Amino acid sequence: xLSELLNAHLTSLRARHITVAVFTGIALAAALxxxxxxxxxxxxxxxxxxxxxWGRALSLVLELAVAFYLIARYIINPILHxxxxxxxxxxxxxxxxxxxxxxxxxxQLTRKEAQAELVAANKARSLVxxxxxxxxxxxxxxxxxxxxxxxxxxxxxxxxxxLVTLAVFLFLLNLPASGALLSRAFLAxxxxxxxxxxxxxxxxxxxxxxxxxxxxxxxxxxxxSTGILEITFKNAARTQKFLMDRDHASDGTYxxxxxxxxxxxxxxxxxxxxxxxxxxxxxxxxPAVAAFECTQVFPAYTARDPEPCPSGxxxxxxxxxxxxxVLATKELRPNPSTAADTRINYIQLFGNxxxxxxxxxxxxxxxxxxxxYGEIPLSDNLSALSIHLVxxxxxxxxxxAVYPVEMLxxxxxxxxxxxxxxxxxxxxxxxxxxxxxxxxDDNLLGKLTLRYKLTDDxxxxxxxxxxxxxxxRKELHASxxxxxxxxxxxxxxxSLEGSVIxxxxxxxxxxxxxxxxxxxxxxxxxxxxxxxxxxxxxxxxARSGExxxxxKTAEENQNANADKTVTFIKEIPNTPPTPSTxxx
Length: 584
Prior knowledge:
single chain
């Protein structure tokens, strides 16, 4: 077994070897990190707009990779693979030849395996003991610590210390710029330190084609009179530069206005040594109406099915609704999630009163994101409407078409008595009198009533007889057989004879009261003079005579006209036709 003295010295040399390796690695890594970081900060400061984030990230990755290599080689590896006793002994032998292999032999021959071999070979172990004792004597005489050299370590420590001291001095001297550069070197989103610092800028925006846009940039620090706006157009791949004037009233704001944006572009701002990142302006078409369909839903009282109506000629009935379907040229913004969200798709109603002028929301179809639906209540004051659209980029439609609206009145019904054809007729008190009529309405007929009164009735009472109407009819040609025997005579008179019955028809439609209904119409007033049977017969005979007389008069007039025609033909002169003259 190796003596305690030799073992202690070998262990000490091993620890010294590891310590020197570790501190060498630390010095190398520190020098590398300080130098690399400083160079990266200097490049970032001198390059226009600074190194991009990806460039700084690449530099940091490479720096960490090299630092890890140095740490692995000079720190981790010496610790994990420290030299054993034989390697340390050989290092001693190389440094001090006076040992003449005693140190390495002492290590090797004092092991249990070597001792067993010596006993088996009948060799005396006393020689080994003497050799170990001689090695111990040399250990006392020689400075074994010199075996592990520190000259290289000292150089690295001096170099690293000098670099760190210089870096700290320069860092403190150039604060706060150095602080910003250091944070940028470690990928912080810090602005590049310049004499002119751009604090805020317009940034990324979406504008409608043809709209103006003003690019603003606010700076601190040194403020020159002008700055530069650099624009690169996407489609034309060309770059233009414009001068940005400083707004003296705002103390550090520069601006430039593009009056009419025609295409998308990328821009950046340079003011003295301050430069912004690149920002993108997206130019898009405004949403517009591609198709507009309308369906009129009639009031319930009309019992009419919904009907499509052309958007260019909106003739509508009050009291119903107008269902609209709008197809846009672009994908539209979804339905508003809150009442405070004012950017919505809607229909603007125009009318004669404030109540009629309002906005009716339109709702996007969940499947077709270019399609909207809505329903408009119809009132008398509605005169026009227009459609307002908002697309998914919050661009709003402009100069939209205005669709005129004409609110059609629900005209009252009409009724006309066509039988009899005379305003006054003679009838007996027991006659059955036919009243023929035509009743019409825009929508539906509601009630039809025969009204009459006796002119010699001192009370002037008006009597009513409801007439039955077929269901859901807007026009009716019919007649009513009136049994005069059921008409009560005037008070204090035994019969109707000698009385005059004034009669007419009243008609109503189905319009409800809340819509100003019902509409009413009245026919002309007719009269029935109630006479005796003899008077009625005399009237019939008189009318028959009048008919024969009328026929005879018409025949005489026809014969007279025929005679005049013959006389006119005979009086025409018989002149031969004139020949045509040939052209010369």
